[in-house]
Amino acid sequence: MLTKFESKSARVKGLAFHPARPWVCASLHNGVIQLWDYRVGTVIDRFEEHDGPVRGVDFHVSEPLIVSGGDDYKIKVWDYKLKRCLFTLLGHLDYIRTVQFHPNPSQFPWILSASDDQTLRLWDFHKRSCLSVLTGHNHYVMCASFHPSEDLIVSASLDQTVRVWDTTGLRKKQMGETMMDPMAARAATSSAAMNVQAELFGTNDVVVKYVLEGHDRGVNWACFHPTLPLLASAADDRQVKLWRMSETKAWEVDTLRGHANNVSSCLFHPKHDLVISNSEDRSIRVWDVSKRVGVQTFRREGDRFWILAAHRSQNLLAAGHDSGMIVFKLERERPASAHGPSNQLYYVRGRELFMHDYGRAQGGVDVPIASLRRVGQQAQTDGIGSAPRHLAYNQYNPAEGNILVCSDIDGGSYELITFSLNNAGNSVTDGKRGSCMGPAVFLGRNRFAALDRHQRQIIVKNLQNETTKRVQPPVANVEGLFDGGTSGRLLLKAEDRAILFEVQSRRVLGEITAPKIKTVVWSPDGSKVAIVCKYGVVIADRQLEQLCSISDNVRIKSGAWDVSPTGGTASQLFLYTTLNHVKYCLPSGDTGTIRTLDTPLYAMRAVKDQLFCLDREARARVLSIDTTEARFKLALANKKYGQVMHMVKNSRLCGRAIVAYLQSKGFPEVALHFVQEPKTRFRLALACGDIEAAMEAAFALEQQSESGREIWGQLGSEALRQGNHQVVEMSYQRTKDFDRLSFLYCITGDTDKLRKMLKISQMRGDIMGRYHNALLLGDAAERVSVLEASGNLPLAYMCARLHGLTEEAERVKVAIETNEGDMESLIAKVEACEAANDKSAAKLLQPPTPIFRAENWPTLEIPKSALADLTAAVPEDPEEDRTDTLHVAPAASSAEWDDDMDAGFGDDAGPSANLAADDDDFDFGGGDDWGDEDLGDLGDDFGDAEVETEDEMGAISDDTGFQMPASGRLPASCWVSNSSHASDHVAAGGMASALQLLNRQIAASDFSVLKDSLMGCYLGSMISVPGIPGSGNMAMPLLRNDSAGHPGPESLPRTYLTAKDLVTAIRNGYKFFQGGKFNDSRATFLDVLHKIPVVVATTPQEQNEVKEMVTIAREYITAIRIKGAMSEAGSDPVRSTELAAYFTHCNLQPIHLLLTLRTAMGAAFKHKNYITAASFARRLLELPDISNQRNAELKSKAMKVRQKSEQMARNEHQLNYDDTKSFVIDCHAFAPIYQNQPSSLCPYCGSHYAENTMTNSICDNCGLCIVGVNTLGLVTG
């Protein structure tokens, strides 16, 4: 049972599903009717007009009506939109048990009710009258229901009978009355008389067709099969009986026994041959109709069950009990499916395995592959969870098809099916089976992993279903396995987290929080993984570093990555489906809704504007979707502005959501193209500094009588910030801000308008305004007049005297004396001021000399970007589907790699499989050495280097009108400004900025080891071309982005090193290592580490390869250093055995791991550490290469060592080594650092060191970077 929803309430006596919406109506014993949304678990409404328990309830098929019947003898019809009772039907004389609308209410507006008054009644809810009273039962009638398609009614009573009634007569009568409406008035009297007769004696319109007797006690429930002539009944004799009907009779088919108390209700499953019943014994039982046996039982402690209901179209059931109700399903409906190669999808429908080929015909073609056998009793019944739950296709085996079919039968099982890819339907090998917990997944070409459900161990098996290895998971509570993205890796589901685990080296590569994981979907290029949870999606990179996490309010059903070959959305756009919607998610965390769904669908594949899905019947469906919004956001995030503006111009992007999104992301100029509403346009225009657009919006708002003062004030502030004084002037004029307007005229030198402001202040009677304007104009006489008019005579006198205005001074003096003022002290103050002015050579305050200009002079340039101008935006070319590979074609060496198809980076065969070691010259002879922070200010060097131009050159002209063109930018300055890669700065000659970049990105310190690489970058970026005789050579730059034409100022230099060069060096290092030439091998890998910082990767695939090369070089350098330490510690048995053990935990190629295990096994056995030797021998025997014929002698030796060690079973020496715990190696002390112990990392190569031992020191492995510094990391492109 899968519980979808559970409520807590009083005892539930009646239940009904809404036919279309996710609603369920529950009538309670306390008289309340509750309307629930079971999808989100909330009460939508409550209806409380019944007195006493409400035992029956039902939804109308098409109208917003609910009918209910209760112990108050009333039938009520409710309108759930109006939220009130429309009318009440009265007539029953006792409790009403059930009520039901006719299945075809548009033609027959009938309600059927059953009552304890021993009758059934049919009502016309349009006329609100009783059509017929069905009498015949002699005890309480416990239920009654219509047949879904025929003119039949079934009723069950405590008189131990089930009756089937024929309503054909009533139907014909009603149809006849409908056709004879003109005669309805004449028949009114006889109709009234018939109603009275019907009340007393019943009518002949509905007759009893069958009376079914067989129960020993009262019958509580009876129901029809939706399609077959079958009946089911449930009674107090603890039995469920099946009955069959014909045209003339009905008879008992079988009795289903198993309940331990009264059976309350039963029904036929709408989609499967099942009967579901519930009882007062606190259980729900499922019965197989064809086998007539019980197949499942669900118990609930403490609550008796009373009622059952089934959804008409969905696979949902509901059961009411003493303390509420539950909505549940008997099985999951998600079809088991798995992606095959290219355009193929494998899925299970019924008991058949199909392959759906998207590339053939429109919509694809289904090709049957195999019939699935079902083992076990549970597997023989459909509809109860016996269908397969998971499929896994072997992507690592191109030679044949391998599929794992997993189900939950008998606690979990799998079946391995093998077939030919060329003739899939006729070449199926019988499946091999086994038990597992959750899904089983493929690890490589010829092996797969399953989780043992008893010991919770990871079991690795080959395609012959033979166990080759058992691995203890890194945590104890692993609940399931998922694909790890590449061979050899698994994603472990453990409680609320996912763990990326490498089986071969038993290392934990990453961990991420993801509660209630349902499935895992890897992107087509393997760079990202979407972990689909019950209520959310977590997107991470291939190392399980989280990129984003989103949550949803409803359950998430499925998800698929976009695989469009063009458009740039492949592996960047994740689409997922919920119960009713298709939504999208971007790695940046942006989400949105694409479309709604009528029924739940499961997304399998997304290509351009098509979503390929499977429905719940496992039928392929193709949906049309519009991903414009998602592609728009993706282009914006990737800074593809040409594509952004092309979509703005040609797509229907609109709505407040997109405008708010653009504002939040800092692109108001793009949002401006979507908005016509003036207020919003005004706000966006101010945000992007578009004064013209803001003025247009301000004029429109002013006409709409908006708050003009505030709007013009904001516009004036922005114009002032830009220095656009004409717009500032207009804004101050419209807001009547006279003081600021006067000051503006002063600083712009407009004395004419400043004099007008003086006159305006005189007209307004503004004393301070007059004085202010006079001061700005330098008009001393006006200032004296203002002071005199305002009554400040002493100040007026001083102003006149100091400015040499004799007449005005005398007039003011007379006025002061007339008012009996103290002139003596005032004259003394004036003379003191004059004396002070003479000493300091003071000058009178005068306004500045105006500098007149012919036009506006904004001081802050606000350039229009391409995003602000639609006409300037050039759409970018659509991205082509390119496959840039660095490896050699597999056809060239297929025969040599047959046994090592899984070799790669450790156990990882993917795009970097070319780096795997070659084993052509494998030899175990004795002729070799094997034996038994904040970025801060980026500085001037990181900014755009501007090239100064000489203005004088533009002035040179002659009579022909020739003018020298402006000089362009030097290539070196373009390279520095266009890239943050150190090699580009070196090519431009900026050694200081390049070294600074390396220090900031990877904490590089000892640059002497990079001298050759840096000089190569500098010399390889230019060529010298000889000129004409008598002239010097010309230096010409070599560019790497000029394939489609000269890139202009966007140019970047060509580098002398490529990823292919590093691949060759890696392979040479492998050969030296295998031949025992450890010094040469270490020098080769160290050279790779020193060249990687100056290699520029051109594709994401190359970037991943370069980063993995760092890991390969680090692991091999560590292994070689440990090998050297083993030679030095030869006399110390403890230390030499420890080092040999650590040697085996370096992540080497399988062929090299075999050598290390051989060495460690010999050392441990020699020093009598037999337990450790046995573990090495077991690991050696688990390697795939050990089965090779040329390793037969080593295999025999390992088996003897294991046998002898298991006999001795003791360790002579105590070692600092525990192979049951996950650890990394301290690259300085060569000791284990276990999972919970603190450590420091080299920011470049990732070497681990014990905390505080090597912090702020040069890394021992790479010899380049400082350990323990937190940096951005290596920049590869």
UniProtKB/TrEMBL annotation:
<dbReference type="Pfam" id="PF23953">
    <property type="entry name" value="TPR_COPA_B"/>
</dbReference>
<feature type="repeat" description="WD">
    <location>
        <begin position="134"/>
        <end position="166"/>
    </location>
</feature>
<protein>
    <recommendedName>
        <fullName>Coatomer subunit alpha</fullName>
    </recommendedName>
</protein>
<keyword id="KW-0472">Membrane</keyword>
<dbReference type="GO" id="GO:0006886">
    <property type="term" value="P:intracellular protein transport"/>
</dbReference>
<comment type="function">
    <text>The coatomer is a cytosolic protein complex that binds to dilysine motifs and reversibly associates with Golgi non-clathrin-coated vesicles, which further mediate biosynthetic protein transport from the ER, via the Golgi up to the trans Golgi network.</text>
</comment>
<feature type="region of interest" description="Disordered">
    <location>
        <begin position="892"/>
        <end position="918"/>
    </location>
</feature>
<feature type="domain" description="Coatomer alpha subunit C-terminal">
    <location>
        <begin position="891"/>
        <end position="1275"/>
    </location>
</feature>
<dbReference type="GO" id="GO:0030126">
    <property type="term" value="C:COPI vesicle coat"/>
</dbReference>
<keyword id="KW-0963">Cytoplasm</keyword>
<keyword id="KW-0813">Transport</keyword>
<dbReference type="InterPro" id="IPR050844">
    <property type="entry name" value="Coatomer_complex_subunit"/>
</dbReference>
<feature type="repeat" description="WD">
    <location>
        <begin position="89"/>
        <end position="133"/>
    </location>
</feature>
<feature type="repeat" description="WD">
    <location>
        <begin position="212"/>
        <end position="253"/>
    </location>
</feature>
<dbReference type="GO" id="GO:0006891">
    <property type="term" value="P:intra-Golgi vesicle-mediated transport"/>
</dbReference>
<dbReference type="InterPro" id="IPR001680">
    <property type="entry name" value="WD40_rpt"/>
</dbReference>
<dbReference type="InterPro" id="IPR036322">
    <property type="entry name" value="WD40_repeat_dom_sf"/>
</dbReference>
<dbReference type="GO" id="GO:0005198">
    <property type="term" value="F:structural molecule activity"/>
</dbReference>
<dbReference type="InterPro" id="IPR010714">
    <property type="entry name" value="Coatomer_asu_C"/>
</dbReference>
<dbReference type="Pfam" id="PF06957">
    <property type="entry name" value="COPI_C"/>
</dbReference>
<feature type="domain" description="COPA/B TPR">
    <location>
        <begin position="657"/>
        <end position="803"/>
    </location>
</feature>
<dbReference type="GO" id="GO:0006888">
    <property type="term" value="P:endoplasmic reticulum to Golgi vesicle-mediated transport"/>
</dbReference>
<keyword id="KW-0333">Golgi apparatus</keyword>
<dbReference type="Pfam" id="PF04053">
    <property type="entry name" value="B-prop_COPA_B_2nd"/>
</dbReference>
<dbReference type="Pfam" id="PF00400">
    <property type="entry name" value="WD40"/>
</dbReference>
<dbReference type="InterPro" id="IPR015943">
    <property type="entry name" value="WD40/YVTN_repeat-like_dom_sf"/>
</dbReference>
<keyword id="KW-0853">WD repeat</keyword>
<dbReference type="GO" id="GO:0000139">
    <property type="term" value="C:Golgi membrane"/>
</dbReference>
<dbReference type="InterPro" id="IPR020472">
    <property type="entry name" value="WD40_PAC1"/>
</dbReference>
<dbReference type="GO" id="GO:0006890">
    <property type="term" value="P:retrograde vesicle-mediated transport, Golgi to endoplasmic reticulum"/>
</dbReference>
<feature type="repeat" description="WD">
    <location>
        <begin position="256"/>
        <end position="297"/>
    </location>
</feature>
<keyword id="KW-0931">ER-Golgi transport</keyword>
<feature type="repeat" description="WD">
    <location>
        <begin position="47"/>
        <end position="88"/>
    </location>
</feature>
<dbReference type="InterPro" id="IPR047312">
    <property type="entry name" value="Coatomer_alpha_WD-assoc_reg"/>
</dbReference>
<comment type="subunit">
    <text>Oligomeric complex that consists of at least the alpha, beta, beta', gamma, delta, epsilon and zeta subunits.</text>
</comment>
<dbReference type="InterPro" id="IPR056176">
    <property type="entry name" value="TPR_COPA_B"/>
</dbReference>
<keyword id="KW-0653">Protein transport</keyword>
<dbReference type="InterPro" id="IPR016391">
    <property type="entry name" value="Coatomer_asu"/>
</dbReference>
<keyword id="KW-0677">Repeat</keyword>
<dbReference type="InterPro" id="IPR006692">
    <property type="entry name" value="Beta-prop_COPA/B_2nd"/>
</dbReference>
<feature type="domain" description="COPA/B second beta-propeller">
    <location>
        <begin position="380"/>
        <end position="615"/>
    </location>
</feature>
